[in-house]
Amino acid sequence: MGVSPPARTWRWAATPTRSTSPSPTTEAMRRLLHWVIPVGAMLCALSAQAGSLSVMPVVVALSAHKVREAITVTNQGTERVTTHVDVVSWTQSDGKDVFAPTADVLLNPGVFTLEPGQAQVLRLGWRGQPPLDTERSYRILLREVPPAAPAQRPSGALPSQVRVLLELRIPIYVAPHQVVHRPEWQTRRVDGDTLEVRFRNQSNVHTVVHDLQLASGSGAPLGAPLDVHAAVLAGQERLWTLPLPKAGAADLTVDVRADQGHQRLTIPR
């Protein structure tokens, strides 16, 4: 087996900016799919809502100057829904999310019931200690509470329907006093069939990577893009693999689409 060619690395210049409270972009509704986690093995089609519940906003952006936010949960279904709400701290380790109890964020109410068409406003407040050097991240967990068991069915009878309970995970980001963007990308051919794309987030805020598109040297897409929609927290890294074309084209690129913009990476031969 031959020696793998050296990896190629790209660094974007550090760009310190004054901290602001970013509002959700037009991508926010699309990113909701990433935060909706089905409970159990059954999956259902999702749009800007999960089951019968819709939530706005889908991303909570806080800062030292904005420590409170209101979230509206609406029951767009035809049945009563009871929901339990909690807030956990959110970190990452080895590319995986880690959640833990926290007292940094107060949220009220913790449990509520909505009739069809009704809405509930959740009010939250961050009580951490600014200024922050690095962004803090949390998740709001909205879990549908199972309805009361129906009247006893005859022995051996099957239920008329199976209800899928869903959990929504809404991210909360608390901005540092000064934001520095320093993302670092690296590409490497593992063998003749596979390409590794590694992202190291050297920024002090998170980055959301939307998708990766393998392309020819002229920029023509090769195959379908790899949908990622992954939030990489400050100081963390992620690794993705892409299949290389069988033709063995020498001049290839990877187009990266992220919340910080678009970047084209060349691939070492």
Automatic annotation (TrEMBL):
Signal sequence, renumbered to the chain: none
Listed GO biological process terms: cell wall organization
Any GO CC annotation of this UniProt entry: outer membrane-bounded periplasmic space
Sequence segments annotated as region (Disordered): 1-25
A Pfam family hit: PapD_N
Ranges of residues in domain Pili assembly chaperone N-terminal: 54-179
Protein's name in the database: Molecular chaperone
